[in-house]
């Protein structure tokens, strides 16, 4: 049902934008969804207060209330702050905006409402994008958009409302990213990639950091992960940074609507030259930095303490990102980073030397090669780097996983990793680390090493909540030709410290079945004979046609 609502909302919203660019339009739509949500949750809290203030059996009961006293009491901001509801001034409440939707100055009214909301809620200062009065929409379209957003019902239950909003918001982010194409990747990482990072890292508590956080999808998935597995979302502290001002606002709104506390720095800024969290040491880092950016360097970065393994080349930031994230990890921390495939093998401009130093320092834990066509913004093949500051298991080894053949096409040009594939990758890493009941910890369903859902052999455990959490895994890690292999550093050095999984995992095993081979060979021979016969027929037909036109052979 909710999926149908999301699709209907998107189709209508997309139709309303007429010729307006999706990059501009998304801020109008997402901003209105945000205002509708906080207004709905405010109204739900207000209705709850009316009931409780007038109920003699309730602790909130207002004794000896005179006419009008309840209305005055309902304007006490403390009632809303105690349940983490945003305070919404009367002119900014959704009903006031909806009633004025057909007025020619609706854009100005929305901007003024956003200003009032920011003034009343300091955590939103500078976050709400006030661009409605100057929006280049045809007459009446903004009012129609307000009417459309009015149809989104978040309900009276705050937790349910937040979940509905989160799903609608995330769906719209993804659809706008798809509509924008290459530019969409600047603010949105496809959900299946984020889920893979989160499933492997298992961020259950502590500080989570993303130095190029886009719209905040890494944080949202981390919080979902924790909540889904019995943890408290408050156990995680969110730190992020984003250079693009409009994307920085998207991230802040994306987190605020979910009630997630966050620190995205005082302002949008560059993580290399204006690091907003210089003293941060994180438990987990999840990031999808822009691939191969060439204009990142500044003279002030010469000799920076972050460049422990070598000065990154000024024409490519890939190894600057890797070292920046290692710098910000706690000794026990782990990082998962999405980068272009070239980062695994490039030897240009000191990149090979830096990679060799990182491998020999044993900070590279897992490398995953990803399928193509996962991203909205690039067809460049990508990979996942998993780094640690100090290994506690599998010292002197790197786990290589080749997931290039694991994609499922969801459109003509777009693919994704299914949950089953993500489970397989996460379970493989967990088994390799020797983590007890790690599959239960990440909430993933895994079978014993057999074929599962056409995704190939799964390394994992059938976990049980009754098992002692300190007991060893029930199925140990094993290499699987064509999919995963644990490789010692000495062998990696022999390959010039290249980290491409395909170089190490080998070819997938194929059953040696002579009868099966004979059957397939016969089928192929028969098919070839049919195609050759058809080819001969076509050749005769072409010759006859050409002869009719006077051509001789």
Give your account of this protein's structure.
This protein has helices at 2-16, 22-53, 69-73, 78-81, 94-99, 106-120, 141-150, 158-180, 191-201, 217-228, 245-256, 318-327, 351-360, 419-433, 438-442, 489-494, 502-505, 514-548, and strands at residues 206-210, 236-240, 262-263, 282-287, 329-340, 364-369, 382-388, 397-402, 408-409, 415-416, 484-488. By secondary structure, the protein is α/β, with parallel strands linked by helices. It has 3 domains: 2-180, N6 adenine-specific DNA methyltransferase, N-terminal domain (Ferritin), CATH 1.20.1260; 187-408 and 472-505, Vaccinia Virus protein VP39 (Rossmann fold, 3-Layer(aba) Sandwich), CATH 3.40.50.150; 515-553. The strands form 2 sheets. The protein has a 9-stranded mixed β-sheet with strand order 3-2-1-4-5-7-6-8-11, sandwiched between helices. A two-stranded antiparallel ribbon has the order 9-10. Strand 2 (236-240), helix 11 (245-256) and strand 3 form a beta-alpha-beta unit. Helix 2 crosses helix 7. The longest helix is centred in the C-terminal third of the chain and has 35 residues, at 514-548. Residues 182-187, 438-474 and 510-515 have low confidence and may be disordered.
């Amino acid at each position: 049902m909710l999926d149908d609502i999301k699709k209907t909302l998107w189709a209508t919203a997309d139709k309303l934008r007429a010729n307006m660019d999706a990059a501009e339009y998304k801020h109008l739509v997402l901003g209105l969804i945000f205002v509708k949500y906080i207004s709905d949750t405010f109204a739900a809290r207000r209705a709850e207060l009316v009931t409780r203030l007038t109920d003699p059996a309730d602790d909130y009961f207002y004794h000896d209330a005179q006419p009008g006293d309840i209305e005055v009491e309902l304007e006490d901001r403390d009632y809303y702050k105690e349940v983490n509801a945003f305070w919404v001034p009367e002119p900014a409440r959704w009903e006031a905006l909806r009633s004025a939707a057909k007025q020619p100055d609706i854009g100005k009214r929305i901007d003024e409402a956003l200003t009032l909301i920011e003034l009343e809620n300091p955590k939103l200062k500078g976050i709400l994008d006030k661009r409605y009065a100057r929006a280049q929409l045809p007459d009446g379209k903004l009012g129609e958009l307000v009417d459309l957003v009015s149809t989104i019902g978040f309900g009276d239950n705050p937790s349910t409302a937040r979940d509905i909003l989160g799903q609608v918001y995330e769906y719209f982010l993804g659809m706008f990213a798809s509509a924008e194409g290459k530019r969409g990747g600047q603010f949105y990482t496809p959900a299946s990639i984020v889920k893979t990072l989160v499933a492997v890292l298992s961020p259950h508590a502590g500080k989570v950091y993303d130095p190029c956080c886009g719209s905040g999808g890494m944080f949202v998935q981390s919080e979902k992960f924790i909540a889904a597995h019995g943890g408290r979302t408050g156990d995680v502290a969110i730190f992020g940074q984003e250079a693009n001002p409009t994307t920085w606002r998207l991230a802040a709104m994306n987190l605020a609507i979910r009630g997630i506390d966050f620190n995205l720095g005082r302002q949008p800024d560059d993580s290399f030259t204006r690091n907003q969290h210089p003293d941060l040491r994180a438990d987990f880092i999840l990031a999808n930095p822009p691939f191969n950016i060439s204009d990142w360097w500044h003279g002030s970065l010469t000799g920076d303490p972050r460049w422990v393994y070598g000065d990154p080349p000024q024409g490519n930031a890939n190894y600057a990102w890797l070292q920046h994230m290692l710098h910000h990890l706690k000794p026990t921390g782990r990082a998962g980073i999405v980068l272009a495939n070239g980062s695994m093998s490039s030897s240009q401009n000191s990149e090979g030397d830096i990679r060799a130093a990182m491998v020999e320092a044993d900070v590279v834990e897992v490398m995953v090669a990803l399928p193509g066509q996962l991203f909205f913004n690039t067809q460049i093949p990508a990979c996942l780097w998993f780094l640690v500051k100090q290994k506690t298991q599998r010292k002197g080894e790197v786990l290589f996983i080749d997931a290039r053949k694991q994609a499922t096409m969801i459109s003509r040009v777009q693919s994704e990793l299914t949950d089953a594939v993500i489970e397989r990758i996460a379970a493989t890493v967990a088994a390799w680390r020797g983590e007890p009941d790690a599959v239960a910890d990440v909430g993933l369903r895994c079978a014993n090493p057999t074929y599962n859902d056409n995704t190939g052999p799964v390394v994992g455990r059938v976990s049980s909540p009754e098992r002692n959490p300190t007991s060893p895994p029930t199925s140990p890690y094993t290499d699987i030709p064509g999919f995963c292999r644990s490789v010692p550093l000495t062998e990696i050095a022999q390959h010039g410290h290249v980290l491409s999984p395909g170089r190490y995992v080998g070819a997938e095993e194929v059953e040696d079945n002579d009868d099966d081979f004979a059957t397939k060979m016969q089928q192929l021979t028969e098919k070839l004979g049919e195609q050759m016969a058809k080819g001969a027929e076509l050749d005769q037909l072409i010759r006859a046609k050409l002869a009719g036109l006077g051509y001789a052979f």
